[in-house]
Each structure stands twice: as C-alpha cells, then as structure tokens.
Hints:
alpha/beta, 5-stranded mixed beta sheet
Amino acid sequence: MPLKLALPKGSLQTSTLRLFERAGYHVSVSERSYYPSVDDSEIEAMLIRAQEVSRYVEQGVLDAGITGSDWYKDSGADLVTVAELVYSKQTFSPCHWVLAVPVDSAFQTPEDLAGKRVATELVNVTRRYFEARGVPVEVQFSWGATEVKPPVLADAIVEITETGSSLRANHLRVIDTLLEVKNCLLANRKAWADEWKRHKLESLAMLLTGALVAEDKVGLKMNVPRTKVDEVLAVLTALRRPTVSPLSDPDWVALETIIDERTVRDIIPRLKRAGAEGIVEYPLNKLVY
C-alpha cells in the first residue's frame, strides 16, 4: 500500500516541488489536478492547502504531509514531526509571523493593544499569544489582504512575512515576532507505527533534509603538489578534513572537499596562489551526514 502524502498547494507549492526535485523525486502536476504523479510507485501524493494538511493527516485520510509549523500549531493536531524543513516560497530561509501596526500609530508594545482589534489568519496562535501576556484583545479571522486592514478594519494585524516588503508597502511596522515558521514533514501516529511507512518516511526525510543542507554548499576538487599540500589545506574551511588521494604522478595528489558557496570566490584565488591546479567547482544536490 503506497504512502499517502499531502503536499502544500498554494504559495509553498513551487518551492516544495523544487525541493523534491533536488532530493531525487520528480513530481509532475497537471493543470487543475490535485493528484500529482511521483516517479516513486510507493508514494501517492495529493495537493492540499497548507492550512488543512494537519487535519487530514490527523484524521488518517492521509498518512503524512508537509505544512508549516504555524498551521500545525494553530490546528492543535496530535502528530509526529518526522523532520523540520527550513525553506519558504522565495528562499531557503524561515518566515515569521509578526505583530504589526500602522507606522504612525501610538502602539509600541503588545500591551498597548489591550481592548483593540487584531486581524489574522493564524487565530488560535494569536489568541494564545495575547492570553499568555494577559492582554485582552479581539482576534478577528482574516480571509486575506490582511495588510490593508489597519487602521480602519483593525488596529493591528498578525501576518506572515518573508522579506517584510509587503508590510513596508502598506506602511506597517513590526512590534513583535510571534513565531518562526519551519515547514514540517508530519505523520499521524498510526502511519508512524507501521514499520514500512515509518521506514519510507525516514528515508524521505533524509533525502529532503540532505537537499536543504546542500543548498548553500559546493564541492571543490583540485590537484596539488605534495610539497604544497599543507599550504592548500591551510586555506580551506571544510565541513570535514578534505579527502586527499594519490595520483599516478607520485609528486601530486588529488584533493576534494565541500565548502560554503559564499566563500568560493575568495578561496579559489587563494588556493591557486597556494599551489593548487585544475580547480573544479561543482554543485551539490544532497548532503547527508
């Protein structure tokens, strides 16, 4: 019986499918279809709004699914977190739910909003946030376009942001952060107790996590004279000690390592000056520890 897996439809869909591609899974989505095909006969996928994934996984309609930790926490569902996957719709960095107010308002802290209206899609998390601070507010569910509601329809909002550009465009400023969002691979407890499904989920989590870890890494390989090995090693900042292999010429070795992509442009010239030759940079799809 295949693993029934929910994938998020909407803003996270493209980045999720791209992550699966990097992890080695080709997911094909037909126009107007909610049942994408996966080139793994052991996975049966369905596209569902991220806000609803936790509900259907908990009910057992689906074995597992990917959704944000925000919607998972808001739902109150009892699920197993198989893996945390840090990526968002535009980047591979987490998003945040923030409390925001009009730029020219007098509100400076959450306590200043006592007795006021707060609009949000994340109703339960927002209510718990204010209750924990003893601040009475009216939390109103927002069907969207939340940023345009202050100050006429609401005094403040709790909204998700990735870059902050939408908040700035609507003349809002952040006065607190409620939650950092990490996407999660979640499973219901019945599926997790099934040995085959658990093994399948653990393998899937390993590959997805490996693809995320490799996102900002690259591989480097080069040839180095034996007399220059120590100088070249002194230049490298590696995840682990570089691999050094003998070549047919006893006076040379091959050296291979993995480094942060952002350091490559600085390191390659230094490697060349230290004596390395034939330097090759190559991308990584997955990095599994």
